[in-house]
User: Which sequence fits this backbone?
């Protein structure tokens, strides 16, 4: 099950997108300000982040810039700012995609699926395994379940892999 973080201060949009994503089988967390969203993104391993640009306390571009220094979590900017320069800035700061509001939920879902598919293919090449809520990093020899480290003996690890 993929985990998605929505950092969006417009409650109607956040709850609508959350409801649609949960209906599609995603596990979703929502934050309504930039600082809380940034902290949550650092503390947890999300498969994807939907990030608004205009947020209270810390804007989306700054969140994206800071996250890119420490994580490669895929980010889709979800914002009302739709000028070419806004899109270019978002992508240059490290966003993987940019969706302008208003948007069709079907298009957003398709973009999420495409991005997750690409990332999953890359993870398979880089020796990472996923099954439901279990993630195994073969190079680091680590196992996580629901993003919490699971301590295994050598034999248990080998059997799992």
Assistant:
């Amino acid at each position: 099950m993929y985990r998605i973080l929505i950092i969006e201060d417009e409650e109607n949009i956040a709850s609508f997108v959350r409801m649609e994503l949960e209906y599609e089988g995603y596990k979703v967390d929502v934050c309504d300000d930039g600082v809380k969203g940034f902290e949550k993104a650092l503390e947890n391993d999300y498969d994807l982040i939907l990030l608004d640009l205009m947020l209270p306390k810390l804007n989306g571009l700054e969140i994206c810039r800071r996250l890119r220094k420490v994580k490669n979590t895929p980010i889709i900017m979800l914002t009302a700012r739709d000028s070419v320069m806004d899109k270019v800035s978002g992508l240059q700061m490290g966003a993987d995609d940019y969706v302008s509001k208003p948007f069709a939920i079907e298009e957003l879902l398709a973009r999420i699926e495409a991005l997750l598919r690409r990332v999953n293919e890359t993870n398979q090449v880089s020796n990472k395994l996923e099954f439901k809520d279990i993630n195994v990093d073969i190079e680091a020899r680590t196992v996580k379940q629901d993003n919490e480290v699971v301590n295994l003996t050598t034999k248990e690890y080998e059997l799992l892999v």
In short: The chain has a mean pLDDT of 87. The chain has six helices and nine strands. Strands lie at 3-7, 27-31, 48-51, 75-79, 97-100, 128-131, 134-137, 142-145, 148-149. Helices lie at 11-23, 34-43, 60-70, 84-92, 105-125, 154-160.
